[in-house]
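Progress against Task 2.4 (sequence-to-structure conversion) is shown through the following example record, which the project officer requested during the mid-term review.
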Amino acid sequence: MQACRVLHAFVCSDYVWHRISIDVPIDILPDVNIVSLPSSILQPIIIKALRLDDNWRKREPDVRYIMLSPVWVLNQSATIGQLQFIGKNHVLSLSRCYHHHELSFWSLEQPLCTQPNLTIRTMPMIRFSVTMFSGDSNGVIVFLGRDEKLYTISLKTLTKQPSKLPNNLLIQGRVSTVETCDHIIATLVAQISPSSGSPRYTVVFHNLVSSRSFIYHYPVSSHMCRLQMRLYPSCFVIVQCPEIGEGDVLVHVHALPPKIRINDSTPLQETTVMTGDECRLLAEHVLSRNPGLCEWFIPDEPVSEFPSHLPLIIFQQLGGFTRTIGLVYQIPMNIDERTAETYHHKPTHTFSTEIETTPQIVCIGKTGLRAVWLDKQFENEGPKLWKATFQTGMAAAVTPLVAPHQPLPFEARMVSTLRFEEATGRVAVGLWTGAVYILEF
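Structure tokens generated for the chain above:
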């Protein structure tokens, strides 16, 4: 009996739980170090993560539905354009009506909600981004339309309209990406040259504390047809996709100059233009693929910590658009800042989609272990929702999001946008009707 007590005390100790190898996403706040958590708190978190992983892999998973349906959707034409989870119990939705757009904060504590906690009516916007501070209770939301607007938000006082922050930065060009990390906002802007017709790309950084802005003119080859950005605490990543048959997908990791992160409250009078030496190239990753049409996706979940890898998924169309191959990459981010190296990568996982389908809306988790997507059928059969698991050392597992005999409370053809939170297994689904469903695995 004494030996059992000693063994039980040992397996419940911090020493043991801090040394367990965990290969599933863990649901903890981004600014919390897992080693700092005592075993009494860490144990239920890991058990919950393992149960979620088991349920996610099932062909017939248990799914809980939460419906967020404003009463006015029956009387107006509205479309959900973007969704984002905020904290543990809130989701933010962008509804596009005919004359205006609305940003709504919803509580997830009720299985059916017909009234948002807060609604902000705005002029037409492209998209938004949110960064949270103070343990996921306070943050800043970025609106991107004709210009950039910043508002402070607090989940503790969602009944009050948010306060607008001063921002004199005018975004000129077509915005392709907006990223937020800690107190830094980064916007990737494309400007089309009237003479050549080729785009010039600019990365605009804005420090929320110092109110300073910085511009970096990003050099890019003319044959690159699509760029996307990811912002981290000490670097930013640009992913470049070439035109059909022009070559490989390139991932460039650049240094984030320290002066951007200086939180000096005395703002500069002018926007600072940064040089290539300040935003120097730290690493180039080359992702080999077959020639032909492809679409690629990186995570869109907010981050505040520096990751070990950047996941990326490529969907490559082969055989006269009748077959699509999925290629999953894990790009290491442990960079030697002393030298800029070039690395060549092969996919960690490869899988095929159904015949004559191609993924249309794709969300990959920030660790790259899970993904969800909506496919598009080339024939008359309607679209379908899928989920996937990309476990290290195992083959990719792709199954329907829910079992065929478990009908969804909406039709897949009505889906306008998706949002995926990997660590919690929550999938937010926005519809063309203006309704939102939360699927909890």
